[in-house]
Design brief:
Layout: E1 30-33, H1 37-48, E2 53-57, E3 70-71, H2 73-79, H3 85-92, E4 94-96, E5 98-103, E6 108-114, E7 127-129, H4 132-143, E8 149-153, E9 156-162, E10 167-173, E11 176-182, E12 184-187, H5 194-198, E13 203-217, H6 221-225, E14 230-234, E15 240-245, E16 253-260, H7 266-269, H8 272-282, E17 293-304, E18 308-309, E19 312-314, E20 320-321, H9 329-348, H10 356-384, H11 388-403, H12 405-415, H13 418-426
Parallel strand pairs: 1-2, 1-12, 2-8, 5-14, 12-19
Antiparallel strand pairs: 3-7, 4-7, 5-6, 9-10, 10-11, 13-16, 13-17, 14-15, 15-16, 17-20, 18-19
Helix pairs in contact: 1-4, 1-9, 2-9, 3-4, 9-10, 10-13, 11-12
């Protein structure tokens, strides 16, 4: 099956004349734009609490595109509130407690970190490499069992409006243009979010000059090079991330991520000639590497000016985007989802009088800026550093941290996003 085909066969939901628009109480219904992992987690958490939910997704079904895979300990702790979900992710993915830093010019391992030092800080002292579409499939299978949740594929949100009591979306569907109203709307519709744009929320930050090139191969970097399943390789000329995913099962696939010149013609960068030359330079073979997938994309570091405006909330890429080094983007989005749903349950079911959406905005926006943005920017600088003294300092710092259990724990609390979750929990409306 090609990567752009659907991973699972799904029912094609469309609202025909017989569909009862008022089957869900609009005063309690939460609308969600985006049926990826973040939107589906929101739907599941709210649906399990008994809240009516309607999800709109522009695609005909779940997309089988090879995107994010790393799920950090802090996120696994969040997902563990859904019975069996983490176990299912481990079954479909790879449990990886170790990651490494290497220097490419000298081909030497600089540092190795083991999440076991976090055994008293998390129920999950490891990372699970489970591709994003697999996680989405596991969530959807659970969501479809909830009678109070509708997932509508082939439904594209095109407009958003709200007043003091409700929010309304205009949706393009197979049955024509429709409007749906609810108590709240969650925009989980990606970096180009229509919900964010229609709500007039700025997306502040910058775009990197280079792009990221992802080349996926069955070549076994563990057996042939000694890399572990999550390896970061520093190089002043061409750094690389190299990590393994389970794919369709043993032996799995390896993804390599390289920087690419944004001014170069995309077709040339993705051509067989350039791709194979890059891989041969990285790890020479007497024959061409088998490349099963290639992708080239632009990289941004942006954060929404607010994560909540009136009855509209943003979560995931609609609220923040960052470079993929360290695997924090989707993790931050799933943590957004859990935080937002906790607040919405209080608002809808318990009628909590406090300004919980303002608290959601403050908690998630602060930690996104302080941790996700800062950490991913630092990760990139560490790998691409050119100055010899800076590289030496980076390597000495990494080696010292890895060899000292106290320093290793401090380092891993950040990379595992546990410090981020602790910081979010400490933020109150009256504090910073």
């Amino acid at each position: 099956m090609r990567h752009d085909e659907c991973w699972v066969a799904l029912r094609y939901a469309s609202l025909g004349p017989a569909y009862e628009i008022e089957a869900m109480n609009p005063s309690k219904t939460v609308l969600i734009s985006g049926g990826g992992p973040v939107g589906l987690l929101c739907a599941l958490l709210l649906g399990r609490a008994g809240i009516p939910v309607r999800v709109f997704d522009a695609n005909p079904c779940l997309q089988n595109d090879p995107r994010a895979a790393t799920t950090h300990p802090a996120t696994l702790d969040v997902l563990d509130q859904v019975p069996g979900l983490v176990d299912d992710m481990a079954r479909l993915g790879l449990v990886t407690p170790i990651f490494q830093f290497w220097d490419r010019p000298s081909n030497t391992k600089i540092a190795e970190f083991d999440h076991v030092v976090l055994k008293n800080d998390t129920r999950h002292p490891f990372v699970i490499q489970c591709e994003q579409f697999k996680t989405a499939g596991l969530l959807l299978a659970r969501v479809e069992k909830l009678p109070n949740v509708d997932v509508l594929f082939n439904h594209t949100v095109t407009d958003v409006s709200q007043d003091a009591n409700s929010v309304t979306v205009t949706v393009k569907s197979p049955a024509g243009e429709q409007t749906h109203s609810g108590a709240y709307l969650i925009g989980a519709d990606g970096g180009r979010s229509t919900v964010r744009k229609q709500s007039g929320i700025a997306f502040e930050g910058f775009t990197y000059e280079e792009r990221f090139l992802v080349l996926t191969t069955p070549f076994d970097f563990a057996a042939n090079r000694g890399y572990c399943e999550r390896t970061y390789i520093a190089d002043p000329e061409e750094w690389c991330n190299c990590f393994k995913v389970a794919a369709d099962g043993p032996p799995g696939l390896w993804r390599t991520v390289f920087p690419a010149d944004a001014t170069e013609n995309e077709a040339k960068t993705l051509s067989d000639t350039d791709v194979h030359a890059r891989m041969q330079k990285f790890f020479p073979l007497p024959h061409a590497h088998d490349i099963v997938h290639r992708n080239l994309y632009s990289i941004h570091q942006r954060v929404a000016a607010t994560f909540a405006k009136g009855r509209v909330l943003l979560a995931g890429d609609s609220a923040h985007v960052n470079n993929s080094i360290g695997g924090m983007g989707l993790n931050g989005g799933l943590q957004d989802a859990a935080n937002a749903c906790e607040k919405l349950v209080e608002l809808i079911l318990n009628r909590n009088p406090h300004d919980l959406l303002a608290l959601y905005d403050k908690q998630r926006r602060i930690v996104t800026t302080e941790f996700v943005q800062a950490q991913t920017i630092a990760n990139k600088k560490r790998l691409e550093a050119r100055d010899a003294e800076t590289r030496k300092h980076n390597f000495e710092e990494l080696s010292a941290s890895a060899s000292d259990p106290v320093k290793a724990r401090e380092f891993l609390l950040k990379t595992a996003m546990i410090s981020m979750q602790q910081r979010a929990a400490s933020i109150k409306l009256e504090t910073v």
